[in-house]
Write a structure and sequence with these properties.
It is a single chain. The protein is an alpha/beta fold and 201 residues long. The chain has a single domain (3-191), classed as Dihydrofolate Reductase, subunit A (3-Layer(aba) Sandwich). The chain has helices spanning 30-38, 48-58, 71-82, 108-117, 129-137; strands at 3-11, 15-18, 43-47, 85-88, 101-104, 122-125, 143-149, 157-160, 168-178, 182-191. The strands form 2 sheets. It has an 8-stranded mixed beta sheet with strand order 5-4-3-6-1-7-10-9. Strand 9 and strand 10 (182-191) form a beta hairpin. Helix 2 crosses helix 3 (71-82). The protein is globular. 22% of the residues are buried.
């Protein structure tokens, strides 16, 4: 049986990115970057928007307002290019330009459920907020992992991670601090049918 991780990097207030900020909010350090390189290889799961963004970077594009990637950012993108990837989309068409990418037009939840049942191996999301929400809501996520960077981007933040989520109980299984500032927390999620004090329970 495969294992599915929903994997996010966020600001402290739960944003995936922020206008005018560099990648990793400019706060990536050697411990965090080393951990990225040491993680077991996983099949990366994403939606169409994330695919368009990341494949554009892999083809040589850079974020708006940025002339070039840092060496660490280039290494991260190169690593993703070499990894197996699955993109779920009803709008993309084959052939896809990003190497090692499989396109799935059908229902993402059912496809991931089948991938998990297919055999051992690690599946991990990248970005793709709505995809992650659907997988979590379906109850097929084994681990929910977040690295929080020490910034609050209330004025410039975009892509709020948790809007539209169900109520979820999180049982912690791991935590770590990187470079004395960024915090990893890892949980086993349990989607709740109702909050603990729901009078109808």
């Amino acid at each position: 049986m495969g294992e599915l991780i929903v994997d996010f990097i966020t600001s402290l207030d739960g944003y995936a990115s922020a206008e005018g900020w560099p990648g990793w909010w400019g706060l990536e350090g050697p411990e965090y970057l080393g951990w990225l390189q040491e993680r077991p290889q996983a099949t990366l799961l994403m939606g169409a928007n994330t695919y368009r963004l990341m494949s554009g970077f892999a083809a040589g594009g850079t974020p708006v307002g940025t002339d070039e990637f840092s060496t660490d950012e280039e290494a991260s993108i190169s690593g993703m290019t070499g990894a197996p990837k699955v993109v779920f989309s009803s709008t993309l068409e084959e052939p896809l330009s990003w190497a090692n990418t499989t396109l799935v037009h059908g229902d993402a939840v059912e496809a991931v459920r089948a991938m998990k049942a297919d055999g051992p191996g690690l599946l991990s999301t990248i970005g793709s907020i709505s995809l992650c929400r659907s997988l979590l809501r379906a109850g097929i996520v084994d681990r929910f992992r977040v690295v929080m960077f020490p910034v609050i981007t209330g004025a410039t933040g975009s892509e709020r991670i948790y809007d539209g989520y169900p109520d979820v109980a999180l049982d912690m299984i791991a935590s770590r601090t990187f470079d004395g500032r960024s915090q990893l927390v890892e949980y086993r999620p349990r989607v709740l049918e109702h909050p603990p004090l729901d009078a109808t329970a």
